[in-house]
Amino acid sequence: MSLRVLVSGGEGFIGSHVVDRFVELAHDVVVLDSLDPSAHAEEPDYRNPRATYVRGRVEDVEAWRRCLAGVDAVSHQAAKVGLGVDMGDVCDYVRANDLGTAAMLQAMHEARFTGRIVLASSMAVYGEGRYRCPDHGPTRPEPRTPARLADGRFEPTCPECGHDLSPEPISEQAAPDPRNVYAATKLHQEHLCFAYGREAGAEVLALRYHNVYGPRMPRDTPYAGVASVFRSALAAGERPRVFEDGGQRRDFVHVRDVANANVLALTADPAVTGPFNVASGEPHTVGEMAEALASAFGPAAPRPVVTGEYRPGDVRHVFASPARAADFLGFHAHVGFVEGMRELAGAPLRPSVSGVRAGRPR
Asked: What is the pTM of this model?
């Protein structure tokens, strides 16, 4: 059955791949995007000609009203992403993420929308991942203090006994524990959408993306993912700067797999609701990722350098169990880590925004 799907942020990194996948499957796609100059230096050349594009800001209720007519399902990808620069970004994050989602839901309420909603959420809602103490079992460590980080003690310890902890895959049953502004806004987006779903009888799925990478990533901004930051450095003939000791574990999932997860979420039958990890299920360290990307550039490429630098608000290890997405959505990641890094090494990235330079890798 063909659907009319509204994709917010459909000219961005992930959203544009979601648009392409829905168009490929012969669905009717409407895109709402503001082409925010903090993220887009120019109009993208990858815009899909078979989609309908509406220019508007997500925090504007009227923009949503213009797009919702006849829509069967919504894929809400628009967001301000990454950890930003500092607390000076807090209003921008809340405006784009929280207010933008509230405007969407107000317009949906006015339209009596009861279709399916897929929200682009994030692994960041978990804070630190799941850990196990050899003496006290599963535990949630306290946030790492600046003093510990400055001393090079990066691994979280058991709050009961101080022992080192073993990281484990985290599931959707874990209690959220957002540890920076971006994470807090993503969790609030989930809460708002699920509240609307309960009141309106709409089906809501929150896809908790892990570290997404691939073609069309933004380059050279404080909001780009670490894979983009490293690739930009390598393309400039510079050594990727790996923070901490490079041992931070993450799950790197390719953007085409993420786009496919969105299709599965909006077309799952029978309908399901709730949060879903979107991850490869194969964690790698940030150091491994830097080395794999450098190797993909060739033997003459600059090698990564481990700097010992750190960012307050970063977490040490967070990687996921994708079992729930596999069981209920039929989702499985197909792009392997080495294959994906090779593709990223030669893939076009979005042009950098003038005057904005890459921030610190996460």
From this structure: 0.93
